[in-house]
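Exercise 7. Predict the joint structure of the components listed below.
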Amino acid sequence: MKGRVSLELGSGGQLMREFISRHILSTFDNHILDELLDASHLPHGIAFTTDSYVVDPIFFPGGDIGSLAVNGTVNDLVVSGAKPEFLSLALIIEEGLAWDDLERVLNSIRQAAAKAGVKVVTGDTKVVRRGQADKLYINTSGVGRIVARPDLSRVAPGDCLLVTGPVGDHSLAILLARGEFGLEASLESDSAPLTFLLPLWEMGAKWMRDVTRGGLATILSELAERLPYPVLIEEEKIPLSGPVRAAAELLGIDPLYLACEGRAVILAPADKADAFLTELKRNPLASQAAIIGRVEDRIGRPKELLLRTRTGGLRLLEPLTTELLPRIC
Amino acid sequence: MDELRHGAITAALLRLVQQKTNRLGRRVRIMEVCGTHTMTVYRYGLNPLLQASGIDLLSGPGCPVCITPDEYHEAAIALLTQRPRTTVASFGDMTRVPTSQGSLQTVVPAPGSRLRIIYSPLEAIDLAMTHPEDEVVLFAAGFETTIPSIALTVKEARKRGLLNFSLLAALWLIPPPLRAILQAGEVALDGFLYPGHVSTIIGCAPYRFVAEEFGLPGTITGFEPNDVLLGIISILDQLLANKPGVEVEYRRAVPAEGNQRALRVMAEVFEPKDAVWRGLGLIPSSGLRLRSEYQDFDASSRFSLDVTSARGEKSHPACRCGEVLRGLLQPEECPLFGASCRPESPYGPCMVSYEGACLIHFKYNRPGKEK
Amino acid sequence: MCLGIPAKIISIEEGNTGKADYLGTKVKVNLSLLDEIKVGDWVIIHAGFAISRLDEAEAQETLNLLREIASQENPDS
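Solution:
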């Protein structure tokens, strides 16, 4: 790649996927990194992950940059088959940030960590000149204990995909909090810890991913890409909140590409899908969980992600190519 | 309003389409003029179902992003990358069109400059008010649906005495290219699905020449899947009765006379000009420019940008967007389609715009094979 | 680009602006392109402007037509 880095690289689209494969994987060539799990599985039963948070605004309905930084890292561990235990916390603060705001964020981190059952055990603080950062950036790394190993080689036709709740609320809550596009809705970010999914690993979950940047369509395409079967999703079954449905239509955005910060997709064995759904629905954070699709053998070609539309048509779902939305995580 | 998307009704409408094409005894080729119709057809997976019912749909020139020649995009990119403290405000999909210098999204702005994606053109006025030290350029592409809003935005800038607001206008009128396509006679057509929202502004009259001079039926159609099917049925009925006209399926939104107030605002701020369309070339009175009273808001003269010498040629020698826009070629027939030209690495604007035929075909028209 | 959404006007403010409701989401809308818009009217919104007033009787007629086609096809439903 020539020239200079543009914003598009960070958008979670195709350019970032290329960057990771051409630059990151080849530069740091090792078999742990190559697996590209949300959290890497290390020797001695340890899982390890890291993530940076640059959301604007730093406070939004349903959360703030602090709780986001805890939940995002906790969730990467959970969906990689690990019980989250320890976090690091690095703060990059813009000169001039109100002390009140900083304390509010730290408090929020404390509460989110307690809720997720993790301890913040190390950290770092840097302050940069005004204009060199936007208020506050946070990096958290997380360490967890491996409880299961996601295994796509066991996936078989008939296995079911479940989503833990309506998708897209986080993206939209951020947009609304920025006051852009003149939209108003009573809507909160879905930011939440997904630790309640851990029992599903014991029940035989084959794979999980949290629905973050790129949305449901992108993570499911990435799943289908790695399977020797097609995956079929039913548009009608995908839970969407009213405001997400409405705002997506108003702005001409497909909600299947909107990010969440507290939702996941789970691949369950065919005969256990209903039990998984019952288990999920016991938790208030997943009361609207639904079975949205299955691994196919009757339709489509290997590696395809297909969508059965509301009107009965069938089409391919592509991963996100370019994100048009502003900084959301 | 569920009826407009209801799958069982869709199935019933498709059977009705089939009965009517059977009665006609031949396949029927219809151009959907508007990219938003293309989107409905493919997003809801209607195309294979329509094909099976005897209807072949061709995408028309109704995607402003697609038909805006490269020179406009390059002018916006030049402003963003070369001029400090300049905000280019633009609708989302204009920002991804590739040129020899990249797209508005992939270039690195000059110091203090930025790209702002907007939903309403009035957001550009707010930006100019809140950043008086910056130049704010509204890079607006659109058809009659959008033009009145752009005109009001310019009037608002005048009312507020804004000196740091200007307009880079890529504004196009829908009826002239229809005439150009029919006069060229390159493509065999049986009728037109006329754009629903353009027609809320212009009404029925501007399409009459299609029926009167070229003998082809057409129906102004809404954007829900079952609207589109009703529009197609209306065209089939006109063919069966051998009475080509301008029918309105989208009656709930389109008065026959259009929106006179919007037309007046448009005419107050803009005047027609001969304009070059990508793929279609020079079309008489098909574009708009600011009237002399509003000339001081013209970004091309304020910043000496040259968009008048646009040639409307393809961005890449092998790119065939032009033929796709004229209905001569289905996207799949272009040798670049899906191979080197993909949404993440587009060669032409039809693979960029949400309403571009190539992008829509790429995303939605590759159904999994039923075993 | 010619995306338009039907929404209901819920408030009208000074300067020809108002708010419209679409499925519970409120959107700021400029009303300058239409004559005598009242609270409760349905409009088509495009790029933040109301470009057309929806005619409820006509909308009802289209829905009736669709229901009729469906019932003729399938008398049981």
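Discussion. The longest strand of chain A covers residues 82-94.
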